[in-house]
Amino acid sequence: MKRKLFVSSAAAVVLVAGGPVAAAAASTAGDAARAPTAVTAVPADVSAETAAGAALKKFPGVVESLDKDGSVWHVDVIGKGGKHAELEVDSSSGAVTQQNSDDNDDNDNGYAALIAAKVTAIQALKAAVAAHPGQVRSVSWDDDDNDNGKTSRYWNVEVKTSGGQTQNVHVDPTSGKATLSHDSGDNDENSDGGSDGSDGGSN
Question: Model confidence over 132-191: pLDDT tens digits?
Fold first, then answer.
């Protein structure tokens, strides 16, 4: 008795193309082509607040100033006994490098008001952007003598608005009140960077 052999068209294609192994390979290649392409996340820049926190973790003390220069945050910190340190914080990775430090014994009295201030640099930048939204470009402690012979102390926070305007916000070191300075201007010559060539950071 003769047996009839029926081969479907799909099976014939498999046999002609090289059998089950070739079919499996073709199926795998098809699945790979249909698989979604992985999207690489772009890391956000380290903000001024984060940079200050990272610097203080490396060198405990009080932040005297910070500003962004290209891809690096420069942070000046006053430690115990008036010891001063300059640190750099990478704006992409957050890595901290201590550049140098010195005792600055002669300036202990000059740092007394800064160390005693109720409002820190981080609190000042938060108050500044809360009152005048934007990206923090720099923060610095100002200790000036006015025309009346009195010393005026405040935090100067440079903020860049979404419209490209540069605003200098003065923050009272005792109350935390933020006041827009008359020195603020539109699109200053450093609008693409921060003060002294800095670039701004986000809060």
Answer: 999 999 999 998 776 677 788 999 999 999 888 999 999 999 999 999 987 655 544 443
As a whole number of angstroms, the distance between CA 143 and CA 160 comes to 23
Helices 20-34, 9-17: crossing angle, 10 deg rounding: 100
Identify the residue whose tokens are 């108050």: 127
Measure the CA–CA gap between 39 and 168, rounded to whole angstroms: 39
Residue 125, H or E segment: helix 121-131
Residue pointed to by tokens 């199926």: 27
Cα(18)–Cα(194) distance, integer angstroms: 66
> How many residues would you count in the chain?
203
**Can you state the percent helix, strand and coil of the chain, rounding each to 5?**
30, 30, 40
Q: How far is the first Cα of the chain from the last one, in angstroms, to the nearest whole number?
A: 87
The structure's pTM equals: 0.67
